[in-house]
Recover the amino acids of this structure.
């Protein structure tokens, strides 16, 4: 829905509760930490909800001009707090006895997605390699058996056309079947 800041607030509250109950670096902190990181990554890739921007920031005359594609507008703002959250989650998983290798693999895939989305392919591939090893130790590497798309950005020509001719558009539905 694009409400990444709101989701981060909720994950931060869940993290606070987990830390109060079990202390920092407990296994219960892993899910909220991954959620925080995921919201930063998805906001970077998809752009945020403009309704979530505080009015004081939206009216700033010195703010950069909004671009047509929100993903392009956020291209330089992948927040390092997301990477930090994933590394904290991995430390919590490693601290647990016994180490849950499937859980560690999931966190490493999330870290790999983080690096690939940010354009740091070598670090992303290294995280995926480590995840593969953990999945194998855990009993199933099915999570990495098939590629998946992290982001889709429409061609700039279609974005420009869609933004400019919004009133002249017609919607049509298409049904397709495999032969």
């Amino acid at each position: 829905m694009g409400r990444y800041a709101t989701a981060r607030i909720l994950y931060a509250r869940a993290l606070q509760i987990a830390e109060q109950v079990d202390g920092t670096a407990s296994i219960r902190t892993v899910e909220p930490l991954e959620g925080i990181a995921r919201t930063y990554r998805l906001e970077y890739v998809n752009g945020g909800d403009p309704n979530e921007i505080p009015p004081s920031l939206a009216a700033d005359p010195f703010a950069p001009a909004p671009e047509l594609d929100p993903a392009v507008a956020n291209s330089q703002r992948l927040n390092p707090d997301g990477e930090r959250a994933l590394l904290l989650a991995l430390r919590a998983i490693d601290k647990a006895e016994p180490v849950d290798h499937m859980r560690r693999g999931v966190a490493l895939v999330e870290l790999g997605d983080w690096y690939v989305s940010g354009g740091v392919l070598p670090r992303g591939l290294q995280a995926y390699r480590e995840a593969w090893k953990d999945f194998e130790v855990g009993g199933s590497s099915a999570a990495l058996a098939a590629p998946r798309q992290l982001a889709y950005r429409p061609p700039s020509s279609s974005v420009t056309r869609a933004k400019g001719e919004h009133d002249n558009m017609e919607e049509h539905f298409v049904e397709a079947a495999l032969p």
